[in-house]
Q: What sequence folds into this?
């Protein structure tokens, strides 16, 4: 069992957990991830590590409610526990002084990009960060990113904050302006990473993406997370999760990630029913408590 | 095969009332099994085991050889003759204790060990008929122990003050742990997954090896004093160097098991519906996907569909029999050689056939076909014929020109072997590995190129069997004990 030291929503549907996991905290490097299992009947899913505190023995993960498992996870509070958390998994990011690096974070991908941005800055790079979300509320970790970047650009799809548009629009601007870019690191939804890859391929800018395919064990044993990289199978958990964006077949990634859509939908519906049922039955005793002045 | 030396005890005086001639007249006693048409729809155990009467009847068949070949052919050296004699005496717990001198997982090996390749192959009764049912007897004794032995009665050894880390809780690691803890060493087992047992848990289906049995055997080891820690991927969560350094372990045994699943490298292997056997079986066994939606891990819908497993080993059979239990309309094995070359256990092939599995031998897929939406719709296959024997000694499959044909298929499961897992290799400087990435270890001591570090099982040999991994665990434990005792490397 891994204790949640602190849990807080940082945006609608996006929660940050600080979890007691001293072994993982000691070893975590930028680019790595964890796999969690919430409870006995739970599935195993890979999640982003935002940062870790080796002295305190805690790791932070940032979770967006999408399916049953992430909703269930985001229903947990400070003081609750997570049954299993294993990691840090995957190869760490390659951190060197490349020159100027553009770090791009789309939505909750920003949390995965953050430790790399921080390390790249420490390695002497000029770090230009572009983060974005659908609207103002969904832009996360802006302050944290500002601390580790030379420049931060923010975009929102609806223009409610920063520049209206996509993170890739901002990247295009930088390229068109003749900004020297030695490397791009992009973490976010697959369409975003694909768009970045298409844009930088033409410009011959080295581009790294962090992939998030369906995974089970995370140690290379099952092969479920295989991605097609220049026609060859590679396993995101041991060969990645970071790959050269120009070699990745994003269409296969999208197709494979959709493999369990039906089942995921069913799980989510069952979960919502359960939550509503619990709410309905919990309502009565709560009133009693309130009357007794215990609440 | 070298096994650790076991103390020589003079053969016990026989209590078998029958003359050898009479013993050989008794036919081999068969275990009860669930009916094929019942069991092929559920995951409950196929074999139902012996009753005490059947066990004693079977034990009476043993002719108590002066030099029992069954013991020499056992990779862990179980004293077969001696435990069988104790069954004749009706001392079932004594028989269990006798097995435990050499084998810490009797209820597991009694179920999944290929006895026909080891002890039962050595059995002299083979010459006159069928061998003694050693595996069945082991299973009976182990199950009797599970039900009747109180683990509070385990006598713990005097602590030596030495600490050993075991990396991986599969058959080799558990065996090494069991042997070392009885010598008084403090043993800590690290497991990457959330359950103890390694391949026993994620690889072998419930209908062959129920999870409850693994848990009980592991609990027995806890009672012996072995510590277990799940959710630790050694190499990532903690390195071998850190275990030997700041964590203060005096020796480490690496038993991380089989590695990454292999694919054929043919077109269409990325289609939805194409699985590795490891993934398919892990979803079923470790994650209970067959109990979806009670458990969250999903599985594609198999009901009424055509499912093929590519391969002919035990993993292939475990996979296809699981597919049938998920409701597959037609479940078949696609194997490029003939049935005679299949590495799977004969008993498993028999069980699979009884359950309705079809065997399409001398055929292999060339390409998986896309339904246009990224899902598997079929395979283009090619027929084979057998040529000259290859390096494995089995006759090589040779493609027949012009024999291509298509089959409709919704799910294809690749069970064609594994390659070495890279994590420990990449994170342990100075650990010598083979060209293929397996850890180099001495065949008798399991010593690696790193002082204090031993390795055994599939991460050394490549994919093999539970009992061979256990043999490696025993050899390693003996060598580790010697190393800790003397300090000699």
A:
């Amino acid at each position: 069992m891994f204790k949640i030291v602190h849990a807080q929503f940082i945006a609608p549907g996006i929660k940050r957990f600080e979890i007691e996991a001293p072994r993982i905290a000691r070893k975590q490097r930028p680019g790595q991830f964890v796999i969690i299992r919430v409870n006995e009947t739970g599935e195993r899913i890979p999640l982003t590590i935002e940062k870790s505190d080796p002295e305190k023995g805690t790791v932070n993960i940032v979770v967006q409610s999408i399916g049953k498992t992430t909703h269930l996870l985001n229903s947990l509070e400070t003081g609750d526990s997570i049954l299993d958390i294993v990691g840090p998994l995957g190869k760490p990011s390659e951190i060197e002084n490349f020159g100027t690096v553009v770090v791009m974070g789309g939505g909750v991908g920003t949390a995965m990009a953050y430790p790399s941005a921080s390390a790249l800055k420490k390695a002497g790079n000029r770090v230009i960060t572009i983060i974005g979300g659908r609207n103002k509320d969904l832009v996360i970790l802006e302050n944290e990113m500002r601390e580790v970047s030379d420049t931060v650009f923010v975009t929102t799809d609806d223009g409610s904050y920063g520049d209206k548009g996509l993170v890739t629009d901002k990247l295009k601007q930088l390229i068109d302006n003749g900004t020297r870019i030695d490397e791009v690191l992009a973490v976010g939804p697959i369409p975003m990473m694909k768009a970045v890859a298409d844009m930088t391929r033409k410009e011959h800018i080295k581009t790294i993406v962090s992939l998030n395919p369906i995974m089970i064990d995370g140690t290379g044993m099952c092969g479920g997370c295989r991605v097609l990289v220049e026609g060859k199978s590679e396993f995101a958990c041991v060969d990645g999760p970071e790959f050269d964006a120009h070699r990745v077949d994003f269409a296969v990634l999208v197709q494979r990630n959709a493999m369990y859509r039906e089942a995921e939908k069913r799980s989510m519906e069952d979960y919502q029913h359960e939550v509503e049922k619990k709410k309905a039955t919990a309502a009565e005793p709560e009133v009693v408590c309130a009357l007794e002045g215990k609440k | 095969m070298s096994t650790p030396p076991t103390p020589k005890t003079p053969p016990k005086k026989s209590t078998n009332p029958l003359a050898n001639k009479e013993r050989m007249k008794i036919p081999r006693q068969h275990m009860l099994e669930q009916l094929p048409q019942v069991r092929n729809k559920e995951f409950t155990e196929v074999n139902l085991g012996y009753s005490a009467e059947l066990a004693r009847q079977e034990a009476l068949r043993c002719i108590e050889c002066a030099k029992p070949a069954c013991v020499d052919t056992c990779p862990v050296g179980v004293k077969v003759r001696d435990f069988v004699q104790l069954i004749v005496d009706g001392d079932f717990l004594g028989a269990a204790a006798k097995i435990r001198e050499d084998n810490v997982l009797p209820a597991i090996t009694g179920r999944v060990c290929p006895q026909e390749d080891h002890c039962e192959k050595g059995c002299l009764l083979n010459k006159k008929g069928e061998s003694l049912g050693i595996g069945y007897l082991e299973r009976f004794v182990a199950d009797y122990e599970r039900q009747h032995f109180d683990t509070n009665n385990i006598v713990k050894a005097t602590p030596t003050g030495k600490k050993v880390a075991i990396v991986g809780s599969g058959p080799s690691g558990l065996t090494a742990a069991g042997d070392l803890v009885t010598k008084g060493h403090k043993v800590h087992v690290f497991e990457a997954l959330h359950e103890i047992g390694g391949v026993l848990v994620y690889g072998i289906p419930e209908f062959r090896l129920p999870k409850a049995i693994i848990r009980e055997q592991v609990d027995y080891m806890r009672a012996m004093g072995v510590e277990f820690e799940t959710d630790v991927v050694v190499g990532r969560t903690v390195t071998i160097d850190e275990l030997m350094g700041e964590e203060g372990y005096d020796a480490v045994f690496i038993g991380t098991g089989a590695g990454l699943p292999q694919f054929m490298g043919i077109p269409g292997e990325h289609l939805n519906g194409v699985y590795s056997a490891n993934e398919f079986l892990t979803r079923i066994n470790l994650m209970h996907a067959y109990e979806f939606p009670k458990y969250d891990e999903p599985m594609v819908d198999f009901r009424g569909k055509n499912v093929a497993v590519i391969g002919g080993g035990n993993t292939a059979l475990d996979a296809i029999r699981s597919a049938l239990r998920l409701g597959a309309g037609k479940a078949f094995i696609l194997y490029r050689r003939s049935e005679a070359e299949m590495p799977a256990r004969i008993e498993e092939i028999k069980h699979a056939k009884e359950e309705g599995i079809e065997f399409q031998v001398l055929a292999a897929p060339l390409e998986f076909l896309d339904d246009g939406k990224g899902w598997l719709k079929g395979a283009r296959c090619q027929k084979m014929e057998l040529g000259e024997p290859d390096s494995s000694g089995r006759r090589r499959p040779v493609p027949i020109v012009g024999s291509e044909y298509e089959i409709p298929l919704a799910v294809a499961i690749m069970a064609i072997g594994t390659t070495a897992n890279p994590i420990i290799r990449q994170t342990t400087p100075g650990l010598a590995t083979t060209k293929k990435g397996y850890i180099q270890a001495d065949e008798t001591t399991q010593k690696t190129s790193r002082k204090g570090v031993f390795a055994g099982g599939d991460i050394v040999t490549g994919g093999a069997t539970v009992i061979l991994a256990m043999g490696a665990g025993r050899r390693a434990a003996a060598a580790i004990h010697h190393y800790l005792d003397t300090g000699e490397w």
Notes: The interface with chain A takes residues 192-194, 202, 230-233, 236-238, 258-261, 263, 265, 269-272, 275-276, 278-279, 282-283, 286-288, 292-301, 374, 421-423 of chain B (CB under 8 Å). The mean pLDDT of chain B is 94. The two ends of chain B are 22 Å apart (CA to CA).
